[in-house]
Automatic annotation (TrEMBL):
The keyword Iron does not apply. One of its GO terms (biological process) is L-histidine biosynthetic process. It comes from Moraxella pluranimalium. SUPFAM superfamilies: Class I glutamine amidotransferase-like. Its EC number is 4.3.2.10, 3.5.1.2. Residues 9-206 form the Glutamine amidotransferase domain. One of its GO terms (cellular component) is cytoplasm. It catalyses: 5-[(5-phospho-1-deoxy-D-ribulos-1-ylimino)methylamino]-1-(5-phospho-beta-D-ribosyl)imidazole-4-carboxamide + L-glutamine = D-erythro-1-(imidazol-4-yl)glycerol 3-phosphate + 5-amino-1-(5-phospho-beta-D-ribosyl)imidazole-4-carboxamide + L-glutamate + H(+); L-glutamine + H2O = L-glutamate + NH4(+). This is Imidazole glycerol phosphate synthase subunit HisH. Heterodimer of HisH and HisF. Pathway: Amino-acid biosynthesis; L-histidine biosynthesis; L-histidine from 5-phospho-alpha-D-ribose 1-diphosphate: step 5/9. Keywords: Amino-acid biosynthesis, Cytoplasm, Glutamine amidotransferase, Histidine biosynthesis, Hydrolase, Lyase. The keyword RNA-binding does not apply. IGPS catalyzes the conversion of PRFAR and glutamine to IGP, AICAR and glutamate. The HisH subunit catalyzes the hydrolysis of glutamine to glutamate and ammonia as part of the synthesis of IGP and AICAR. The resulting ammonia molecule is channeled to the active site of HisF.
């Protein structure tokens, strides 16, 4: 009989914790909200949520030792990160001019206000539903490819020159990276917890994932 995996939902001052916790529970996970590195180490899987400013997010991670704990567990456990959590995985963010975790090479950049969508300059922030295209047979995207997910962000992740890491893209004026999978790390710019059935399916896939 398959046991329910324990998912450490990391509390590093970025908000939206209870919405994510509820969605994970509905999707089949046993959730513990924590900033304790020992609890993070003992969990089966890790999820970094994300709503907030990058400078505050990184400062809170460092203050609680979450930055070190995340790097440690990446060696052995599945890790998912959402929105600001995804952006924190990169080398550097233009938001707050702050260094990040450096797990994925690349930078987090402000949307370019000269990009055009439907004949008009894009609005920043990018808020609302948009299609996510993941042309892959990876188990994490089972039943979710070309579905619409909910976004709310002013910055996007640019993994250049390692664009081969991109597993999914979204069009907003121009095409940008909306998801990466590397080894046991799964990151999304959109919010699965706000994305109804498609989001719950994606979280369920993560809960079941055995990289």
């Amino acid at each position: 009989m398959m046991t329910t995996p324990t998912i450490a939902l990391l509390d590093y001052g970025v908000g939206n914790l209870y919405s994510v916790a509820n969605a994970l529970s509905v999707a089949g996970g046993d959730v513990v909200i924590t900033s304790d590195p020992k609890v993070i180490q003992s969990a089966d899987k890790i999820l970094l949520p994300g709503v907030g400013a990058m400078r505050d997010a990184m400062a809170n991670m460092v203050a609680h030792g979450i930055d070190v704990a995340v790097k440690d567990v990446l060696a052995t456990k599945p890790v998912m990160a959402i929105c600001v959590g995804m952006q924190a995985m990169f080398d550097y963010s233009e938001e707050g001019d702050v260094p990040c975790l450096g797990i994925i090479k690349g930078a987090v950049r402000l949307f370019d206000e000269t990009w055009v969508e439907n004949g008009h300059a894009i609005k920043i922030p990018h808020v609302g539903w948009n299609r996510v295209d993941a042309d892959t047979d990876h188990v994490l995207w089972d039943g979710c490819n070309h579905e619409h997910f909910y976004f709310t962000h002013s910055y996007y992740c640019d993994p250049a020159p390692n664009d081969d890491l991109i597993i999914a893209t979204t069009e907003y004026g121009e095409k940008f990276c909306s998801s990466i999978i590397r080894d046991n790390l799964f990151i999304t710019q959109f919010h699965p917890e706000k994305s109804h059935n498609a989001g719950l399916k994606l979280l369920s896939n993560f809960i079941k994932w055995q990289p």
